[in-house]
């Protein structure tokens, strides 16, 4: 008959075995990240093609609820159907491999850096203090920047693989061939084109989102309100949606610069000017009123001008 001590030890051992280890958690996150990346890839593929200005389907004439005539550009489903028609269903997953690798590297880097940051930092007892928000946002910024530096080369590869749809090129294939091609033609710098606007947009997003959520939760949400805690839990999510719309131009410029002047039709005249810097690209898009190109998948419209002069 086993003693209580042995039974207790066995129970503890079972509990320890049942507790997921850090490796198990990282593996689960890697698999989940790969799955989400694969599922959402067609959305990002269509978005990228719209960002570089590729519009293979003609717009249709429609009217708004106020009776104003507009040109409706094809939405996601029409665009995706066109890609399937040209390349088949597998065509929707062009450039997926680099994105999966990027997702895996990002998960590992974030996990490792977060562990080190938590070890070096002390938790603030004032959970709602501005000091705590600044400290946590600084840590998030470090993690985000290191993750972006580590994954940006694969982002460039993925973007260029997808952009080949525009000119029907086969310049960029697998990950290894992409690495060799980019390094041979552009050197190490080629893997980091568009990095600055990408990092700038992500850093601004973090600071604006966290600070706005903090100030709203601290000064706008009344403690006497019965649903105050519930509102606070959703504030950051709502702020994230709003701020992401404001920082979208940085992501657009980053993706365009990743393709610009790399030998693909999508990044060369007459399809696109050759930009010397991301600021020049920003100014060009701003002048054309296209800083939010690709930010929407549906109800994409272009106002119809001078219809009376062109009709008839």
Secondary structure blueprint with pairings:
Layout: H1 4-18, H2 22-51, E1 60-63, E2 69-72, H3 76-87, H4 96-120, H5 130-167, H6 175-186, H7 195-220, H8 228-259, H9 278-287, E3 301-303, H10 307-310
Antiparallel strand pairs: 1-2, 2-3
Helix pairs in contact: 2-4, 4-5, 5-7, 7-8, 8-9
Note down, in words, how this protein is organized.
- The chain is mostly helical.
- It is 65% helix and 4% strand.
- The chain is built from 10 helices and 3 strands, in the order ααββαααααααβα.
- The chain has helices at 4-18, 22-51, 76-87, 96-120, 130-167, 175-186, 195-220, 228-259, 278-287, 307-310, and strands at 60-63, 69-72, 301-303.
- α2 (22-51) crosses α4 (96-120) and α7 runs antiparallel to α8 (228-259).
- It starts with a helix and ends with a helix.
- The relative contact order is 0.12.
């Amino acid at each position: 008959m086993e003693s209580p001590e042995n039974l207790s030890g066995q129970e503890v051992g079972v509990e320890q075995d049942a507790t997921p280890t850090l490796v198990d958690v990282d593996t689960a996150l890697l698999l989940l990240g790969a799955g989400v990346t694969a599922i959402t890839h067609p959305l990002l593929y269509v978005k990228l093609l719209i960002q570089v200005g590729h519009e293979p389907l003609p717009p249709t004439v429609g009217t708004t609820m106020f009776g104003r005539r507009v040109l409706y550009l094809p939405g996601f489903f029409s665009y995706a159907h066109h890609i399937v028609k040209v390349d088949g269903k597998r065509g929707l997953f062009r450039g997926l491999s680099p994105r999966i690798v990027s997702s895996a590297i990002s998960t590992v880097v974030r996990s490792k850096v977060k562990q080190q940051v938590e070890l070096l930092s002390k938790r603030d007892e004032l959970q709602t203090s501005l000091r705590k928000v600044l400290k946590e946002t600084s840590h998030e910024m470090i993690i985000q920047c290191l993750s972006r530096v580590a994954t940006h080369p694969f982002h460039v590869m993925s973007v260029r693989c997808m952009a080949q749809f525009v000119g029907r090129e086969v310049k960029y294939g697998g990950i290894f061939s992409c690495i060799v091609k980019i390094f041979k033609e552009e050197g190490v710098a080629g893997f980091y084109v568009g990095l600055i606007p990408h990092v700038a947009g992500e850093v601004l997003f973090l600071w604006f989102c966290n600070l706005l959520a903090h100030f709203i939760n601290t000064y706008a949400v009344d403690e006497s309100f019965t649903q105050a805690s519930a509102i606070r839990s959703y504030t950051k999510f709502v702020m994230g949606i709003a701020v992401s719309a404001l920082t979208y131009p940085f992501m657009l410029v980053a993706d365009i610069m990743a393709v610009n002047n790399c030998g693909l039709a999508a990044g060369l005249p007459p399809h696109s000017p050759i930009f010397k810097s991301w600021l020049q690209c920003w100014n060009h898009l701003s002048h054309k009123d296209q800083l939010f190109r690709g930010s929407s998948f549906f109800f994409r419209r272009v106002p119809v001008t001078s219809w009376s002069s062109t009709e008839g």
